[in-house]
Specification:
Blueprint lengths: L3 E5 L2 H4 L12 E5 L2 E5 L4 H13 L4 E10 L9 E2 L3 E3 L3 E3 L2 H10 L6 E2 L2 E4 L7 H11 L3 E3 L2 H11 L3 E7 L9 H4 L10 H9 L5 H24 L13
Parallel strand pairs: 1-3, 1-4, 4-11, 5-8, 6-9, 9-10
Antiparallel strand pairs: 2-3, 4-10, 5-11, 6-7
Helix pairs in contact: 2-5
Amino acid sequence: MSLVGIVTAMRLEAKCITPRRLPFNEMVHLREGTAIWVCGMGNDAARQAAAGLRDRGVSALMSFGVAGALDETLRPGDLVLPERIHAEYLHPVALEWRARIMHHLPKHVKVAGGTLATSHQVLTSEAEKREFSAKNGACAVDMESGAIAEIAANAGIPFVAVRAITDPVEFSPPPTLLGAVYPDGSVNTLHLLTLLLRRSVNVTTLLRLAPSMRAACATLLSVVKHADTELGGAFSPQY
């Protein structure tokens, strides 16, 4: 029996798949054929989650969540279904699985392909993003897909990434804001209020971040609604 293992860094991403309050950093069976692991942000956390899912018998791995745009044509809410992952090495994507996901999506969802690159740190300026894009030839960036793809490749199991754009090339979360975010993506409210009072972060920035995240989550919800079977229900790994 096949089992798709879905790795998400943040609880907000996981909520696009299930309304359940999931435990942090452990495998949870959602239904027959689907398991999920909320791991926290970053390469090391994603590697641990993907390895944990592999060791518990998943037959395919999916990286699911949000990403930053490196291509200026990508806007918040656009969907990236990459054809390859660039980390330390190039890693393949199961193209037939990717194609089936695309087939199920409604026409209003804008889908980009190409390369998704993994960064070991958050890119916090347009200059950083453009430099990173030029170096890696990527249209979007995240911090987890490279590790998950590597685990899948080494295990000889299919891999696919489903990533919705939050921040466009010209806008990024300021570095000071990152200190107010827990590893699972939830907000340290007291720390955030302190940053606002000290004017280390301004309200305008927060007001811009919120709709971008809502747009990305709306797209991820659409993927789950329309391509539900490809997230584990009727999944059959024939690649």
